[in-house]
């Protein structure tokens, strides 16, 4: 008796069968244009912080995060981009942009938006209270969910440092994923932008806490490069939000026209926040399969090493250490998966 493995698998999964040139092909019975939702639901909770009134990359990462169903996005926190006050770079400006984007995706009211701190820490261990800081504390203190919590940051660490200062017990209740800083070097390194937003906050998180930390340093996030042509082809046609993103990018090019020629590529350096959480192939150790609890933390084509947390000095130099807590330091990220998934989610959620 001939066993048709393809037919068996199709029937077992509830898929339909068609025949093309004598070859049996299976496809889901659900509409092919619908978006994918993990059958087991989200794998983690998320509080997502970004200085959305600053660099353009945060806008793209925010949309990608909101469209990723393996993450239960509990809150978006708009944070200050630093720089001169009153230049449309405040936390309130960022929160307003987040609400505007959610409205264009028909998600306004479904994901909470909070305003972060009005400025950076003014003194060591002097926390800044804000809606965003409290959102981190509240989510970390929850006892009604077994899903692990990620706090992802595409900017300064003001709110994270403040939350741990105000409620030290949360320090081991979440994993921080930070786009920022540089790789440790014995001779030090130049100041990186996200460190520069709030140096005291970054120093506190690295030097004085035991918060689990995954760092994507500047040497890695600067490799997340995409072309204007790709964005024009795969983003701009995708509904109001695609048009909004592309027009924002073109607006940046226009703004810089007199200063320098931006060419035809952009660095979307905040996007690894989505890749390493929603798209990573880890499984929480608390998960229970048919054979009991297990842990699966292979990261595929995104590479990292476990190192002792470096000491950060006031200039942002990351000085290597030989003891202390260990952090995850990424050396590369899978840009193919990251950007392909972003394009696909846009096109399936907002078909042209």
The gist of it:
It is built from 12 helices and 16 strands.
Task: Give the helix/strand layout.
Elements lengths: L4 H8 L3 E5 L2 E5 L16 E7 L6 H10 L4 E8 L12 H14 L7 E4 L15 H10 L8 E6 L3 H9 L8 E5 L13 H5 L1 H10 L4 E4 L1 H4 L3 E3 H7 L4 H17 L9 E3 L4 H4 L12 E2 L2 E2 L9 E6 L2 E2 L5 E2 L6 E7 L2 H15 L3
Parallel strand pairs: 3-4, 3-6, 4-5, 6-7, 7-8, 8-16
Antiparallel strand pairs: 1-2, 9-10, 11-12, 13-16, 14-15
Q: What does the model show?
A:
The chain has 352 residues and is α/β, with parallel strands linked by helices. The protein has 2 domains: 1-31, no CATH class; 44-225 and 264-349, Alpha-Beta Complex (Inosine-uridine Nucleoside N-ribohydrolase, Chain A). Helices cover 32% and strands 20% of the residues. It is built from 12 helices and 16 strands. The strands form 5 sheets. It has an 8-stranded mixed beta sheet with strand order 5-4-3-6-7-8-16-13, sandwiched between helices. The protein has a two-stranded antiparallel ribbon with strand order 1-2. A hairpin with a 2-residue loop joins strand 1 (16-20) and strand 2 (23-27). Helix 4 packs across helix 5 and helix 5 crosses helix 7. The longest helix is centred in the last third of the chain and has 17 residues, at 239-255. The chain is globular and about 50 Å long. The relative contact order is 0.14. The model is unreliable at 1-33 and 286-296 (pLDDT under 50).
């Amino acid at each position: 008796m001939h066993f048709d493995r393809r037919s068996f698998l199709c029937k077992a999964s509830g898929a339909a069968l068609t025949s093309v040139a004598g070859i049996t092909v299976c496809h889901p019975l659900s509409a092919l244009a619908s978006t994918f939702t993990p059958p087991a639901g989200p794998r983690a909770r998320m509080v997502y912080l970004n200085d959305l009134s600053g660099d353009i990359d945060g806008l793209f990462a925010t949309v990608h995060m909101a469209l990723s169903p393996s993450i239960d996005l509990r809150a978006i926190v708009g944070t200050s981009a630093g720089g001169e006050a009153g230049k449309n770079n405040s936390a309130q400006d960022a929160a307003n942009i987040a609400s505007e984007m959610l409205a264009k995706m028909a998600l306004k009211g479904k994901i909470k938006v909070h305003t972060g701190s009005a400025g950076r820490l003014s003194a060591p261990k002097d926390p800044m209270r804000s809606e965003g800081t409290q959102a981190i504390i509240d989510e970390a203190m929850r006892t009604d969910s077994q899903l692990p919590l990620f706090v992802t940051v595409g900017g300064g660490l003001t709110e994270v440092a403040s939350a741990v200062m105000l409620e030290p017990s949360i320090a081991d209740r979440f994993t921080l994923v930070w786009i920022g800083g540089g790789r440790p070097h014995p001779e030090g390194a130049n100041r990186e932008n996200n460190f520069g937003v709030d140096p005291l906050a970054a120093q506190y998180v690295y030097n004085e806490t035991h918060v689990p930390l995954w760092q994507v340093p500047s040497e890695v996030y600067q490799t997340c490069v995409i072309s204007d042509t790709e964005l024009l082809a795969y983003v701009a046609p995708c509904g109001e939000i695609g048009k909004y993103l592309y027009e924002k990018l073109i607006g940046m090019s226009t703004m810089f026209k007199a200063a320098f020629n931006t060419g035809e590529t952009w660095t979307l350096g905040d996007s690894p926040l989505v890749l390493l959480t929603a798209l990573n192939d880890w499984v929480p150790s608390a998960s229970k399969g048919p054979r009991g609890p297990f842990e699966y933390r292979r990261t595929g084509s995104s590479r990292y090493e476990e190192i002792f947390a470096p000491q950060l000095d006031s200039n942002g130099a990351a000085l290597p250490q030989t003891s202390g807590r260990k952090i995850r330091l990424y050396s590369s990220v899978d840009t193919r998966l990251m950007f392909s998934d972003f394009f696909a989610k846009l096109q399936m959620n907002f078909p042209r």
